[in-house]
Amino acid sequence: xxxxxxxxxxxxVVFVFGCVLGSFYNVVxxxxxxxxxxxxxxxxxxxxxxxxxxxxxxxxxxxLLLRGRCRHCQAxxxxxxxxxEFLAGLLAALLFHMHGMSLQFLMDxxxxxxxxxxxxxxxxxxxxxxxxxxPGIVLGFGFSLFSIRIAWSDSLLGIFLGGGLFxxxxxxYRYLRHQEGLGVGDIKLLGMIGAFLGWPxxxxxxxxxxxxxxxVGFIAMWRSGKGMSTMxxxxxxxxxxxxxxxxxxxxxxxxYWGYFS
Length: 261
Prior knowledge:
The protein is built from eight helices and no strands. The protein is mostly helical. The N and C termini lie far apart (51 Å).
């Protein structure tokens, strides 16, 4: 008789695995913009540069046990580290619940992992590395050949709609305001989102990111007192919109077309 692993155990294992990968994503987020190796040296404290022992590098748990401080220099550890680990684990568990252990699960988790890394790099640096977004466009189109969600033609249309539409918006904003609005990195990111989600995903992502980005932008302008010159990275909002589409987008469009028909 075959031994069946309880679903709750499977989900827990997937969550833990996602958290472990999230620990690696923190390394990428910290080192990639600084052009440092993401492989060597091992994890170290950003303050005292002391190597972090394996028992102090357990995702989520070590942060709680150390009370958010380095064991050696007592410097405060950014809450970003456990947050990225938790979000990676949560995304893995939710996608596993949606797709099971399947090729679609692996493709979607790879996509959301890219979005997670890009969002936090953009928050830190106001930059979206080409080394993540451009290969993401190619891989997203390649994945569409095996995806159960979109056809390769929708992926190709999503690339051109996402990248092309935002390029026109960026050019128009610069012409009217005589300053940069959308960065080139945002345009490439939306092209990558179109490659993975197709043109409906681009439309949904623009809607959600514009709504949430405007709300946060108004709050940031009010708090800074700098008005329209306030800088707000848009990559995190694009990433949020794309993740929301994965979980709610198809249901939203079914409701939308059903309501208006």
